[in-house]
Specification:
This protein is an alpha/beta fold. It contains eight helices and ten strands. A five-stranded parallel sheet has the order 2-1-6-5-8.
């Protein structure tokens, strides 16, 4: 996958992509990441990238010309086509399903918004989708772009060492992950659940699944609607979420 990132702060991308999984994915040729400075695509003497909003109001707005020129130039650098994404709190919220869809693309162009926003013509005529990483406002789209890249790249086949680590992790089946333990079997008097030491793989699997359902019900009951549960698991989930979130009268 070729990932092109357009930003006013390319330096911010030093570091996160030079470590660990991302670094290995680049070295293995599974991904290529390029970062471009939007300011390099301005034509005026002052390299202006923002301007006052028409109609007044506070804050500055990113001008359309540098964004169109930068994006069009960068898109032309690669043969393959893919989504052109604007990172903004107004976008669809990133989730594991969306990350999985994006991981199938051959190409990804990510535009980091800044200031009070971008000229609306960028939304209407340049980008193909808008992504938010959550209902809070950050100072720019750079951290969100890094989050998107991380969530997407680790789903590209071959990037993670063991396929199993993807299959059983949080959100993959619409549930949170079960509790994990490692040695020692007892730490400061706190023992590891006995079932995990039993060697009975069938029972361990059952326990883990049950823990995933319980944990999701207790912490994120909003996820249950889309989760694929058996009738028994759904009954367990309903009881657990009712206990975790007693209604007003009970509190
Ligand atoms: N830019 C600022 N806040 C953001 C958010 N929550 N998601 C995506 N882009 C953003």
């Amino acid at each position: 996958m070729r990932i092109d990132i357009l930003t006013l702060f390319p330096e911010m991308f030093r570091g996160p992509f030079d470590e660990s999984i991302m670094k290995r994915a680049v070295e293995a040729g599974l991904i290529e990441i390029n970062v471009y400075n939007i300011r390099d695509y301005t034509n005026d003497r002052h390299h202006t990238v923002d301007d006052y909003p028409y109609g007044g109001g506070h804050g500055m707005v990113m001008k359309p010309e540098p964004l169109f020129e930068a994006t069009e130039a960068v898109v032309a650098l690669g043969e393959r086509r893919g989504p052109i994404v604007l990172l903004t709190p107004q976008g669809r919220t990133l989730d594991q399903t969306m990350a999985g869809e994006l991981a199938k693309e051959q190409r990804l162009v990510l535009i980091c918004g800044h200031y009070e926003g971008v000229d609306e013509r960028v939304r209407e005529h340049l980008i193909t989708q808008e992504i938010s990483i959550g209902d809070y406002v950050l100072s720019g789209g750079e951290l969100p772009a890094m989050v998107v890249v991380d969530a997407v790249v680790r789903l590209i086949p071959g990037v993670l060492g063991s396929a199993d680590s993807l299959v059983e992790e949080s959100h993959t089946e619409g549930l949170l992950e079960y509790p994990q333990y490692t040695r020692p079997a007892e730490f400061r008097g706190w023992p590891v659940p006995g079932i995990l030491l039993s060697g009975n793989h069938q029972e361990v699997k059952r326990w883990r699944r049950q823990q995933s359902v319980l944990r999701t019900a207790q912490r994120r009951s909003d996820l249950l609607a889309k989760a694929d549960l058996t009738d028994e698991e759904r009954r367990l989930a309903i009881t657990a979420s009712a206990e975790a979130q007693p209604d007003e009268e009970d509190t």
